[in-house]
Amino acid sequence: MSLVVAWYAIDTHSISSAYIASDSRVSWPDGYYYDSCRKAFFSEKYPELIAYCGDVLFPSLLISSIVESIDRGMIFESNDNATKRYKKFKKFLFNEFHKYPKNKVGDAFELLYINKDITNNLYPAFYSYSISWNKSRGFKSKTIKAPSKSGLIHVMGSGLTEFYNKREEFKKLKNKGTSRNIYQCLAHLMLEINDPHCGGAPQLVGLYRKPNTNGFSFGIIHNRKRYYNGLNIGSIISNDKLEWRNKYFEICSGNLKKRIPGSKIQEHDLGE
């Protein structure tokens, strides 16, 4: 089923960044599982983030195809605002679902969609939406209201209860109420989660407030190994521009797997 967590970082001006993090496991009823399944996506050409939980095959096939089409100059037009881009995505989702064999879809799935206005304004508006489907009810979509300060937007998947229980521990830390506290909670939970349907390394995609910036994905240091979009990439790192984070949300060197000297040290009262 998965665990997907989304949140906003908010300063005195507005939303400064948006993030979606997830686990990387796909599992089957017979107990088999695979821990390198991509669940969090981004567009390189537009400020869009998308993630899913529940049924794996239909959402993963569709999202990857739509994002590829968007990045090749199709589907969206340059003057589309954030709301119009979301509506176009939703239309593609509904149209493709009607073509998909219904006896091959799982019991349910849910998609999370986050985007922002394309503007030179220093403080663009951010938007977040949820689209869910199950066999008895069909589709349901909603706009998710932004919090007034840094905090969660949405949590979904079978790991939801364990995440909220872990959150109670992290709310007691000095950095409670911060964006990094939420990621720290998820990253540490992934080291000890009991839900057999959740596992693997965290995935993390983000959007920054800065004008003319689009979606991107972070490299992740997890259990002293390097991961990108859930995939263990081994020791070859040639992309120095990629942002890396460890379980404390510290800025790291992908090659050294350590915090970059001079970058901010986050709270380490969480155990190793």
Helical stretch tally = 4
* Beta strand count: 18
Q: Supply Rg.
A: 18 Å
* Helical residue percent band: 10-25%
CATH architecture: 4-Layer Sandwich
Lateral strand order in the biggest sheet: 15-14-13-16-17-18
Form type: globular
Cα(first) to Cα(last) distance is 28 Å
The CATH C-level name is Alpha Beta
CATH topology: Glutamine Phosphoribosylpyrophosphate, subunit 1, domain 1
SSE layout and pairings?
Blueprint (H helix, E strand, L loop, with lengths): L3 E7 L4 E8 L3 E2 L5 E2 L5 E3 L5 E7 L2 H15 L10 H18 L8 E9 L9 E9 L3 E6 L7 E6 L3 H11 L8 H11 L13 E6 L7 E2 L1 E4 L2 E4 L2 E2 L11 E2 L5 E3 L4 E2 L13
Parallel strand pairs: 13-16
Antiparallel strand pairs: 1-2, 1-10, 2-11, 3-4, 5-6, 6-7, 7-8, 8-9, 11-12, 13-14, 14-15, 16-17, 17-18
Helix pairs in contact: 3-4
Structure description:
There is one protein chain. The protein has 272 residues and is α+β, with helices and mostly antiparallel strands. It has one domain: Glutamine Phosphoribosylpyrophosphate, subunit 1, domain 1. Helix content is 20%, strand content 31%. It contains 4 helices and 18 strands. The strands form 4 sheets. The protein has a 6-stranded mixed β-sheet, with no helix packed on it. It has a 5-stranded antiparallel β-sheet with strand order 10-1-2-11-12, covered by helices on one side. α3 packs across α4. The relative contact order is 0.19.
